[in-house]
Amino acid sequence: MHCPTHKCLINSHVSIQKGLFIPPLKKCYNCCSPGKFHCPFCLPVYFKPTKLCRVRLHLSKHLKKAFFVGEYTIHRCGQGCRRRQHYHCLYCSATLIRSRDFNNHLPLCSQAQQLRTQKSSQLQEEMTQRVQTKGRSAPSLTTGEIDFPSYEEESDDSDNITINPDSDEQSSQEACAEPHSSKCDQTVQTNIEKPQDCDEFYFMNLVKLFKKLSPKKKAEVRLKIERVLFEAEFD
Length: 235
Known about the structure:
- Helices cover 43% and strands 7% of the residues.
- The protein has 235 residues and is mainly alpha-helical.
- It has a three-stranded antiparallel β-sheet, with no helix packed on it.
């Protein structure tokens, strides 16, 4: 049978002792005159106080009827917990009168206790893994620092603009300035949806002017615009 540990030991009744330990036997002067010895596991109803030698003989009979589970000894209890003498389970609060029933109950209760312990340990491991996973995925920002996007790159592909190289830059700009230039339609492609409100309409009108700038100027203008918006938001 599985050897229980202190964590599994739920019932700490006096009838459950570690090894062959017996509670100290002392003379009683409260209810016995002259002083006699009581059985530590039985009330006077089941065993009358008597001499020390007879008590020891009675305890030897307790050992013959006891159950040995791992390092623990379960004595038959006569402390008045029930109307008849019985056994206390090592793993739960159950008490059984018949030794055969108690012998069948112990292994089943031991397995149930092992399953509860395993489920508890698995739950603790899952909770630990979740906490560790959250700690790894959390952003590591120092107090007072804000994670801003970088504007050091001169070119940005987010506008979805394709510009073909041209040997004559001035002639290309003049061609794009014309209202119906087929060359400008071929060199510049944009994915701009229909504006939803006045703000989008305003900024979409600025796109036409923004596209005429060089990549370096575009980066400078972006930086200035976003700085102005950031200051306006947190001012």
